[in-house]
Amino acid sequence: MQIGLAQQKTIEIKDSGAFGDIDEENFPGASILTRSDQGQVHIYHDGIDMFCDKAIFYGKEDFVEAYGNVNMKQGDTINLTSEYVEYSGKTQLAFASGDVVLTDPQSTITTDTLYFNRAKQESYYKSGGKVVRDSSGTITSRIGRYYMTNKKYRFVDSVKLVNPDYVLKTKTLDYYSDTGHAYMYGPSTIVGDSSKIYSERGFYDTTNDTGYFVRKSRIDYDNRVVEGDSMYFDRNRNFASATNNITVTDTINKSIVKGHYAEVYRAKDSVYITKRALAITTQENDSIYIHADTLMVTGKPEHRITRAYYNAKIFKSDLSGKSDSIHADHKSGLTQLINLRRFNKGDAFSAARKPILWNEDNQMTGDTIHLKSNPETEKLDSLIVFYNAFLISKDTLSTDGYNQISGKRLIGLFDEDNNIKQVDILKNAESINYSRNENQELIGIEKSKSADIIIYFENKEVIELRKLQQFEGKLYTEEDLPANARKLRGFDWRDDERPRSVDDLFKDDPPLELPIIRGLEPYNPGEEFFGEALIGRVNKADKEAKDKQLNKKDEKPKASRTIPKKFLKPKLTPTKQDLVIDKKPKTEEAND
Predict the structure, then answer these.
(1) Per-residue pLDDT reduced to its tens digit, 237-249
(2) If you ran DSSP here, which 8-state letter would residue 6 be given?
(3) Which of 127, 335, 368, 445 lies 20 to 30 Å (CA to CA) from residue 555?
(4) Helix (H) or strand (E) holding 456
(5) Rg (CA), the chain
(6) Do residues 445 and 476 lie in contact, with contact meaning Cβ atoms separated by under 8 Å?
(7) 545 backbone dihedrals φ, ψ, rounded to 5°
(8) Sign of dihedral through CA atoms 257, 263, 264, 267?
(9) pTM of the model
(10) What is the Cα–Cα distance from 85 to 387, expressed in whole angstroms?
């Protein structure tokens, strides 16, 4: 409802049995009222009741000063208590000081000094205050503002919300008391027993303990740090998710997982990540990279397990591999490259897309490949290829010649520098070997079958090849061995698939399309508490008092004496807005 100046009501002194007095020397034009045994002084103005032990009432200025056990009530919604209040019926601005407490049905404000603009139903403190809300906790700040119509608080500077489960700190906080929704602006933290959240723009639902954060957002769990462009957090479920440019750091195991969508379950010690997912295990002189469509990292810090699904690849400076899935147990040091049957064509003579490893110039394939490393030294120890083991290395001096060994199982041992030093091919071993003399001239192509084959390496070169229980073998010249007989059954040279860098891990991925982060609206300071309409009414009241010479010459006008000087304007002519005392300007608060 809008109230024009012509309809403005004046302050009334209700009959409360108070004692009346006049002191023209000290309080010219004022009535001095003091409580009696029957009760306090009762003052009324346009829907607000005020009780106090003593009041100085300036009737011509429609202004009152209230002292001692002051209590202002606005219906059953607003209750303000303090030691002192001054109130102008012309401006509808109240100023309270001394143990100020303002309560409504949902929250309580305590502060030293408080302004209350009845025309806009807003209160404001600037010297430190506290708000208590049962379900959300206690909020303190240096500056606070309460928009009573919208049930909205704005806290500025050194904002702190203390809840039994967490402590929220921020630079600026917009808080809606009816929903418990909090909007944070500027560097902000939410610290609980098991997590710490940082963001420079965020939203938190204090009722349901869920949040949404953007701009430099991160969540620190016990031993993981989650970072991303956009983050969601659910305290009750111990759950967090992140979208776009995500990094999950394992602070204990020195590993990192990256991608563009992630889910983290703290209680289960589980991380799920997809969209260019990449797991990085940092080692002293090298790092291991695992990439797949989807990555899962599970288990307690002392026993982490990484699972990579669908087109999984692994890369290290001296080793790379590829398979349908990869399973890495960081406690035992066992990494498994596994093939799913859905990729097998079922043709015994076709080359199924089996797990594959590359080490230096050697290609190894099989139905399943195990890599074993020492968890303490982080160095490769051995590898095992199960079933249909196949080892290929290209003969670099011929155009299409390949050294090949196949068998049921392959066991490889590594030296201290992570280079293969020995390879054992066990059961039904077959080989094709391009034999050359010391001048690298081709002697012939040897093709043989034996029970087992053992190969010894030194400085990445084959120094000895032993065939155990050989039962067939022959050395052919190039002319005597047809091209179609120079490859063992199941031969599949896949060098074009080999990742030679971290970037190569992603070369088969489809184009990446990241979702657009909707984000949160930027901070809008809105209109000052001491806005144009309020200052217009204050200036008008001061001018009327001056024109009627109601104040002493050295006395500051009453309507403006508590208002900060920077908001007072020298121009005393009322604006059009002054004609409607509670007209609401078009500000950010009006649209909240």
Answers:
(1) 989 999 999 999 9
(2) G
(3) 127
(4) strand 442-458
(5) 40
(6) yes
(7) -65, -40
(8) negative
(9) 0.80
(10) 90
